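hey so u asked for the seq, here:
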Amino acid sequence: MSYDFDTLIDRRSTFSVKWDVLENELPMWVADMDFKTAPEIIDALEKRVSHGIFGYTTLPCEWYDSICEWWRERHGLDMQREWLMFSTGVVSSVSSIIRKLTTPGENVLLQTPVYNAFFTSILNNGRHIIDSPLLYNDGAYSIDFEDLERKLADPQTTLMILCNPHNPIGKLWSKDELERIGELCIKHHVVVLADEIHCDLTDPGCEYIPFASVSERCANNSVTCIAPTKTFNLAGIQTSAVAVPNPVLRHKVWRGLNTDEVGEPNCFAVEASIAAYTKGAPWLEELKAYLYENKLAVREYLTKELPDILLVPSQATYLLWLDCSHFTNDSEEFADFIRKETGLFVTAGSHYHGEGKKFLRMNIACPRARVMEGLERLKAGIRAYARNS
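ran it, structure tokens below
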């Protein structure tokens, strides 16, 4: 490999949310990586720092062009510059869009288990969550389209948040699935808000399909949140974009982002994004291969050492969804026990609702030695839990 993903980097004492833990603890929970970002991005940021003046920043043509070219070349979506708006982050965008495209008391539909911040964004804005749970059978997830349509048909349901690829299960939705979702939402006058932040973190040979690429009808009834932050480990730099093909929806979203004051970039956000999309592809390809090898290592370990833990098959993200139903139906208590017993900090699946009370979510975006240490701690915690049960 041309890039180094094996070096263990000490992130303590860097004000890291992930690593703000006890000395003996190993955090494998929140979705950021323990790898340095692409050196091409670091070079761009160092050059910006060396200038020494960090004033207000505008969005240059290069910012728009780099995003459009990336989506055209890698994802087959002919994204247009006029669709794009800057935002400081996907979660802040989601909250702003909820406020602008729905009214208090209306329903926002989710497919659970799903990213926990969506629940907070909906409830904090005085909207109601309507849940269409994903079906889970024989270790695989699918959409209950009958239930989905019934809940979309409720006149109070005006927005659906689509997680594509899906977090935490790591599923890539097919074109047929996306098209069916899109047509049901159009039929029942529900706008689709697609969170596609994990879109570039796919397994080798797998490709995500942008919701807006499925059809012109889907594009015109959708708002898509994107960012280089998950892909290139830039979450702390606060840089993302919202793409809206429909000019009427776009104006509403633009008003929302500006009213909420989340549409102004800092000077590093622009430089990091442009460098990522224009120079980061070689690093990303090696990262994806490394993450896939981590997944294979986890699967092999569980098969040999923890056969009662099922790793749900996934095609995207570096987040593993572990079926622990053999041991627990209270993942909060289960995760707390493992953390106290071994120091391993993983996320209780109950945070994602749905069937999550029987699952743990584990972040394996770290050097393989750290992954293996985490698995050893997991085994020790589960064995201790089984002895105490």
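Residues 381 and 389 are 12 Å apart (CA to CA). The chain has two domains: 26-38+281-388, 42-279.
lmk if thats what u needed
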